[in-house]
Amino acid sequence: MTSDPTVVVVGGGLAGLRTVEELRARGHQGAITLIGAEARPPYDRPPLSKKLMTGEIDDTSLRADLDSLDVDLRLCETATQLRHRILETDGGEYPFDALVVATGAVPVRLPGAGAQHVLRTIDEALALRTLLRPGTRLSIVGAGWIGAELATAARTRGCVVTVLEAAGQPLAAAIGEEIGVIVARWYAEAGVELRLGQKVASIEDGGIALAGGDWHAADVVVTAVGVRPAVAWLDTSPVRLENGIAVDGQLRTSMPGVFAAGDCASFWSARFGRRLRFEHWDVALHAPEVVAANVLGDSAPYDPVPYFWSEQFGRMVQYVGWHGDADQLIWRGDPRADKKWAACWLADRRLMAMLTVSSPRDLLQARRLIEAAADVDPARLADPAVAVRDCAV
Ligand SMILES: Cc1cc2nc3c(=O)[nH]c(=O)nc-3n(C[C@H](O)[C@H](O)[C@H](O)COP(=O)(O)OP(=O)(O)OC[C@H]3O[C@@H](n4cnc5c(N)ncnc54)[C@H](O)[C@@H]3O)c2cc1C
């Protein structure tokens, strides 16, 4: 590969745009093409379920000077096939020296012929927002992060909001039932009806058919039951897929010259000793630093301490790390009484992850301890009067 390879980036979201920016920031002078299926230039998604949905903002464009980036931007064009050093789209063929795949994720939809909204693109968000009027009966399927944020926004617009969740508690799959029990109270306080253990059979005109045969009437139904990596177009390619595009600890796929980053990529994490994929804004923001360096011939390692946030029911919820292998959950503060508290996951005294509620300082300090693979004193960590950074042993 020459020092100025021809680079094609597929996926016009945050990870795609950031890859272009990082390539240019590293002095890359070769041709860069950015191909995106959507009609709009890159924009941010987190505000779609927050300030855009409440009506505080209408535009979430990512501020980027596409002219000075000297990028050939191809909107409304969808990648369909990948061959040796050639990307095929529905608009043409793009030869490349290096390809970065950043196609993100697509929402899961439920069966049924009724109108079913999802929340991934700005156009979906704007269309949904026009329906959220005072008195509208909005039913959200899924009490995950997006479901909670949408419920929060819809209450501020005067909707009558019901959330149907198949599990026994909100966020149970993500952060466990103990925390879910606490979170369930936030729904009640906000005047949102949370119906747990509700398996949806299908979305029909005028409402939701439940698996047990019951009917739930609704004016507007939003399905918020998670996303899948947008990689179906690679099914027939040689690229190895494993919960998304399998990349190594340098974001390289199994196909020479092809890299992947963001929501679509599952990477090998030496830190956590397994393959992981995250759907976090912060991951899409920073992975391109590594991908760009490696496209340009470096061997930069990729092994982040993952981080995300969620704004729901007047609270700033933040999570850092990964608690999959943790064997102990410690409360820092009293989640039933305190406005600010945290849940800390330990594996054999090592801090693996922390979820904080309205405690950004704890979060930042936890991130440093997790980065340092620090062991902590559980008793001190449980005491909110002791700074998190002073809990390392
Ligand atoms: C409503 C909402 C709220 C969120 N809130 C938060 C939050 O509070 N905190 C947080 O950490 N994260 C949040 N996220 C997640 C965060 O936005 C994502 O992790 C981030 O957008 C991932 O960026 P990406 O570039 O990897 O993928 P995407 O943003 O999904 O971009 C991928 C792009 O690729 C395009 N594409 C897909 N397939 C093809 C193809 N075959 N050819 C061409 N183009 C293609 C897609 O159309 C899309 O434009 C939220 C997401 C949503 C939807």
Describe this structure in words.
This protein is of the alpha/beta class and 393 residues long. It folds into 3 domains: 7-106 and 228-295, FAD/NAD(P)-binding domain, CATH 3.50.50.60; 109-223, 3-Layer(bba) Sandwich (FAD/NAD(P)-binding domain); 314-391, Enolase-like, domain 1. It contains 9 helices and 25 strands. The protein has helices at residues 14-25, 51-54, 122-131, 145-156, 172-175, 177-189, 281-295, 360-371, 378-381; strands at residues 7-10, 32-35, 72-74, 79-83, 86-89, 92-95, 98-101, 105-107, 137-141, 160-164, 193-195, 200-204, 207-210, 215-217, 220-223, 227-229, 245-247, 258-260, 265-269, 274-276, 307-312, 315-321, 328-332, 341-347, 350-357. The strands form 7 sheets. It has a 5-stranded parallel β-sheet with strand order 3-2-1-7-18, covered by helices on one side. The chain has a 5-stranded antiparallel β-sheet with strand order 21-22-25-24-23. A hairpin with an 8-residue loop joins β23 and β24. It is globular. The model has no long low-confidence stretch (mean pLDDT 97). The structure holds flavin-adenine dinucleotide (FAD).
